[in-house]
Amino acid sequence: MSEITYVRGDATAPSVKGVKLIAHVCNDIGGWGKGFVLALSRRWPEPEAAYRAWHRDRAHNDFGLGATQFVQVEKYVWVANLIGQRGIRTGSKGVPVRYEAIDTGLAHVATQAAELDASVHMPRIGCGLAGGDWFRVEPLIMRRLVERGVAVTVYDHGE
User: Fold this and answer.
1) What global pTM score does this model have?
2) How many angstroms separate the CA atoms of 60 and 133, rounded?
């Protein structure tokens, strides 16, 4: 069985051939301004604009935990805005990450990756500002993507 490929680098700049789908976790309150989204916004304006419009019109669409929005940013590059965290702060209900929502969103990512014949690229989703545990997220990626034959690369930024 295939494995997840781990590399140091920038998940917004995958250097493989073919169609690439960059997946990341968003919150369910319309906030965009910290964490990995800053790197996305530095490279392309479309993911943020699409996310904000999706949130603004949420009474009339599927915006909510587990939903995933796909935004084409280049001919062979797509971004998946995956709603996988409740709010933005750790509080009485724990950390913002929602593993069930990430799992549901990854199923959408797998379907889209198959339709596009794309590889999937991501930071350690749900484990930054969302406060998640990679040892809980990684098996979701394995089950939803890797076991379905989708090539996945996880990027650790920095040295």
Assistant:
1) 0.96
2) 33
